[in-house]
Write a structure and sequence with these properties.
By secondary structure, the chain is an alpha/beta fold. The chain has a single domain, classed as Aldolase class I (TIM Barrel). Helix content is about 45%, strand content about 15%. The protein has an 8-stranded parallel beta barrel, surrounded by 6 helices. Strand 3, helix 4 and strand 4 form a beta-alpha-beta unit. It is globular, with a radius of gyration of 17 Å. About 40% of the residues are buried. The structure holds cytidine-5'-monophosphate (C5P).
């Protein structure tokens, strides 16, 4: 079964070597990888270039958040690496506008806004001085992402439908916290099956441990890809 380009596997390993071993074992079953800050600090950009040279797509989950000039230059540098298909920034208007400037029309590198970190709840937002619930701030930031001209947002399975509704059909809705039916939740309090996330409007699914910690990661990736294909079938047939 060929890889589904909507499945992004999170390479959350401490070293480049371990990530390479994992990617080699997944081989043709996975075509899109996410590299986060841990791996970034361990030769992550070199790994991204190598995987790109092997024909993979790369989601660089840097969650940039700084003054406009810095975000603009950092985005330009990441895009110039040629090894970035998706880049995250915090979904604040100034930050997103700077990232769009930094990309300078290079549409192959798409930018995602991180609306509200899932580690924050209503009380945490209140302590930070926000007078909005998580839900309302997520909605506001999805609208601001559209206004800023970024390509989509990262949204939990429970916000994916809202992001799809506000963003329209071409908006990217990238959803982490995906767990195959019956799998361990790990520390994901709000997880969803691949089929449900796709039905809610996700354009891409981010999946880490259900694949990377499986005894047979290749088989786990194929099983999730199969679940995704079945979700698509039941959507088109209405089954
Ligand atoms: O192993 P697991 O499938 O939980 O990994 C999900 C990946 O998505 C991790 O890299 C995690 O940092 C990331 N992520 C998340 N929840 C968010 C944003 C990102 O789990 N709200």
């Amino acid at each position: 079964m060929p890889a589904d380009p909507r499945l992004i596997v999170a390479l959350d390993t401490p070293t480049r070597k371990e990530a390479e071993r994992l990617a080699a074992s997944l081989d043709e079953a996975v075509s899109f990888y996410k590299i986060g800050l841990q791996l970034f600090a361990s030769d992550g950009m070199a790994l991204a270039r190598d995987l790109k040279a092997q024909g993979k797509q790369l989601f660089l989950d840097w969650k940039l958040h700084d003054i406009g000039a810095t975000v603009e230059k950092a985005t330009a540098a990441v895009v110039a690496s040629g090894a970035c298909d998706l880049l995250t920034v915090h979904a604040e208007p100034q930050v997103m506008a700077a990232a769009v400037r930094g990309r300078a029309g290079e549409r192959s590198a798409r930018i995602l806004g991180v609306t509200v970190l899932t580690s924050l709840d209503d009380d945490a937002l209140s302590a930070l001085g926000y007078g909005l619930s998580v839900r309302d701030l997520v909605e506001r930031r999805i609208r601001q992402a559209l206004d800023a001209g970024v390509d989509g947002v990262v949204a939990s399975p429970f916000e994916a439908a809202l992001a799809r509704k506000i963003g329209g059909p071409d908006f990217l809705v990238v959803t982490p916290g995906v767990r195959p039916a019956g799998a361990s939740m790990d520390d994901q309090a709000r997880a969803s099956t691949p089929a449900d996330a796709l039905r809610s409007g996700a354009s891409h699914l981010v999946c880490g441990r259900p694949i990377t910690a499986a005894r047979d990661p290749h088989a786990a990736a194929v099983a999730i890809t199969t679940e995704m294909a079945q979700a698509l079938k039941s959507k088109t047939t209405g089954a």
